[in-house]
């Protein structure tokens, strides 16, 4: 069975209460419930974590190497400056998709660049909770393609 790790980064625990005009009114729990339903539909195991601390995100990525087939990550603000998270993703060599609820390219200039993007398969942003659903569908497709090739 396919195993996927989803990591929500800092401040995502405040969804539904924080900047609703940017992030929408769904809570993290509501988004996670939606994703768990999609995981059941796709017949995969999905483990979801949320961390506000960079070190815990890195540890989770390291531990994923032997337990998961792929990663979906919303690094939040760490997207724009965490070389350590970038290096952890590159180091575990698991297919990874970067997700953002908001369109980071339509926001403040400092959000237009992600240090994470060069080491992930792709990035989905700006579609709210649909960004996560599309990332889940994509990572499952990518993992299945890799397994068929025998990589």
From TrEMBL:
Biological processes annotated in GO: amino acid biosynthetic process; aromatic amino acid family biosynthetic process; chorismate biosynthetic process; quinate catabolic process
Keyword Ribosomal protein: no
Entries under InterPro entries matching the protein: DHquinase_II, DHquinase_II_CS, DHquinase_II_sf
Gene3D superfamilies: Dehydroquinase, class II
Keywords assigned: Amino-acid biosynthesis, Aromatic amino acid biosynthesis, Lyase
Active site, per annotation: 23 (proton acceptor), 100 (proton donor)
Residues annotated as site: Transition state stabilizer: 18
Residues reported to bind substrate: 74, 80, 87, 101-102, 111
Gene Ontology molecular function: any one: 3-dehydroquinate dehydratase activity
Keyword match Acyltransferase: no
Reaction it catalyzes: 3-dehydroquinate = 3-dehydroshikimate + H2O
EC number(s) stated in the UniProt entry for this protein: 4.2.1.10
Biochemical pathway: Metabolic intermediate biosynthesis; chorismate biosynthesis; chorismate from D-erythrose 4-phosphate and phosphoenolpyruvate: step 3/7
HAMAP family: AroQ
Subunit field text: Homododecamer.
Function text: Catalyzes a trans-dehydration via an enolate intermediate.
Family stated for the protein in its record: Belongs to the type-II 3-dehydroquinase family.
Name the UniProt record assigns to this protein: 3-dehydroquinate dehydratase
Originating species: Koleobacter methoxysyntrophicus
